Structures
1.
Amino acid sequence: NSEHVARRGALIVLEGLDRCGKTTQCGRLVSFLEGRGLPVEAWRFPDRNTAIGKMISSYLMNNTQLDDQTIHLLFSANRWEKRLLMENKLRNGTTLVVDRYSYSGVSFSASKGLDVNWCKAPEKGLIAPDLVIYMDISPEEAAKRGSYGIERYEQLDFQKKVAHSYQILLDTTWKVIDASLSLELIENQIQELALETIESCPKMPLSSLWI
Ligand code: NYM
């Protein structure tokens, strides 16, 4: 009897170049949804807390070297190790706001010259998001937002390639937001998209990425 079936939560993913404002907006969205009394959690990938996440973090901080295929598969494994928990949370009604997901995985690795389909393969079977928000900013403008950190990838030339790779993945279901607007304008647009998605997604079964 459908009346007794609990509403599932929504999987909401924010994507974009480094310094596009994703992390700030994820935090604001989670606070907003909490304020409305909705069950919600902030997630991010890479999740640097696991053993695999620590290897990724060390690589990003340039403390270890790994070849491109190996780090790609570690990023993917870091999503796989959280997949079951993710499914359980969603089925129990918790909405997850996720800072980066498989699209970062493919875009960053493809920007190093790896084949896009090779990059997508290990992501197949992960849970497909109900909403992907792409925070669109030019690499030049992102670079102006204070200096990049010291982590790998945080360089203008590389970010230009990542922007191009995202364009290859972008499909009509993504919601593209102009990330050069004010924090408040962006926040309002994201809130609206998130509420619509949380309202409508329980009617849709969970589905898998790229199969
Ligand atoms: N990144 C992130 C990848 O290269 N592949 C992935 O699968 C994911 C999730 O890691 N520059 C890159 C993008 C970022 C870096 O992310 C760390 P953050 O959001 O700065 O912690």
2.
Amino acid sequence: MSESKIHEVPSDIAARAHIDHDQYQSLYQRSVEDPEGFWAEQADRFVTWFKKWDKVMDYSYGPDDVFIRWFDGGKLNVAYNCLDRHLDTRGDQIAIVWEGDDPSVDRSLTYRELHAEVCKLGNVLKSRGVKKGDRVCIYMPMVPEAAVAMLACARIGAVHSVVFGGFSPDSLRDRILDSDCRVLITADESLRGGRQVPLKKNADQALAECPDVSTCLVIQRTGGEVAWNGERDLWYHEAMAEASVDCEPEPMDAEDPLFILYTSGSTGKPKGVLHTTGGYLVFAAMTHLYTFDYQDGEMYWCTADVGWVTGHTYIVYGPLANGAKTLMFEGVPNYPDNSRFWQVVDKHQVNIFYTAPTAIRALMRAGTDPVKATSRSSLRILGTVGEPINPEAWEWYYQVVGDSRCPVVDTWWQTETGGHLITPLPGATPLKPGSATRPFFGVVPALVDASEGTLIDGAGEGALVITRPWPGQMRTVHGDHQRFIDTYFKQYPGYYFSGDGSRRDADGYYWITGRIDDVLNVSGHRLGTAEIESALVLHEAVAEAAVVGYPHDIKGQGIYAYVTTMAGVEPTDALKQELVKLVRTEIGPIATVDIIQWAPGLPKTRSGKIMRRILRKIAANEVSALGDTSTLADPTVVEDLIDHRANQ
Ligand code: 6R9
């Protein structure tokens, strides 16, 4: 709302910022009036090209074909841009600071050291038959080798598919098979909050059903026991010890794939979001520099996991392309205690700190003491990502963590967008707590009235679409271009549909309201309701299941499952526990069902469609405002669910 509190840009921040208020205005205008000229300049500034492009941009947003091409004809290498080109000027400067799960364990790598590791791993991969265009799966803890693995792929032109280390063996298997990876890079175990996760064991289970994976490269992280398949498995440290440090970067076309990253949608299995080389790198580097106002020599820390897009763009590619110092954290916010984030900030003198609202809310619960026990005087900029941040959490972050000194950049974007689309710039944008504020350069968002399909002018609320491409936009769903078209370009023809709803106030500020499709956002992690339902119905006692989200104090959304059992099956607490366990095993611990309500029947339309709108209301305990129920086939079903709702 425009009448909400405004935090003006602090004058010290504005004075030295890359972009101040006037520059934002004029540059934004230029970026939408002359996109080709604007993006050519940015591509020149942020990336070193082996060969310049022939055409800046070419695209169609449908209705028939959808294609998006940036910097066509250009040649470059991402690892060269993140490493080699910095060696003369900052070879001995730190590239990655690694903070282990255990506070006494840390390590850092200079650009020169990182370069050498990446070259060696590039050669190891080549020696195992990996060629340009081949897919490599990375299932790793948060250790520098995860970044080394990504960059080694980029160096030799292989396409990486990073799978979050918290995913189950089945999820890993599905992702390996979908993108036909032939090599897997993993570790013996990962370590988080003092607990081991058996990555190699999970990998073994997954690989039992992936006969085409011929190499499993294993990093020794904990030294824990692992099973060994002599034909397939290879210790990372042994292979690296013999590898040469000479590995020429492969010249890639701007539109050659860089990576695939799986993300949940409203239907079916997770889809492989495909990003390409040139446009993605330009956008990653530029957004990292401007959104965080990164200044040379600063220490930058993004707390995400490299298994998510935030880790790809804002731990690895953006910061390293800019020659920044990027901190990688293996642990969790509350181990050994709730002060850990701020202890790490002091220990490594972090200037820019980027985390998720769910972490802020959890720490807020622990009170101000763990924060105030630390100095945090190095902090200059704070950021959030992953879900809408409620104004209370925003203010706590701003006042308690940042001592009312540091601008908070609330960055709205998605796996599909590659980088920030709507975000404040610290030196340019007055802040309104809870608003992601204004579009980044070259980004033209719009709101569509969901029922009319027409664009909304001025202030209003609707479906958030983007009306033209930006360089970091995904290019396709790996192996299923039609799904790409159907998911993002069918609902509102001519536009990219984000799946989110948003409000726009009279100042043109965007207030993201959350997903308006069947995607849940649990602690900043995306989960499709369809995925969870498919897992539930695998159980022989389950006839039908419908999953919705409900407001959760810390996670943002919790998972609420309505389950109909098979005739004659008695619904018991033991069965509930089995079902919770089943979903965790099928998908991973991030998919922990919070509430199960037994449903003798589900509310359906006469044509048999489940009316999720009603289920969401019951789960949120908003039963006095169910809306139109006239299309229900059997209204008594709803009354029964209300009487037995589990979240009162
Ligand atoms: C980067 C990332 C994308 C979904 C997105 C939206 C939600 C992300 C947000 C936000 C409100 C923000 N989201 N950032 N909502 N304000 N600043 O999170 O990618 O995992 O693909 O999730 O997350 O709902 O559509 P991804």
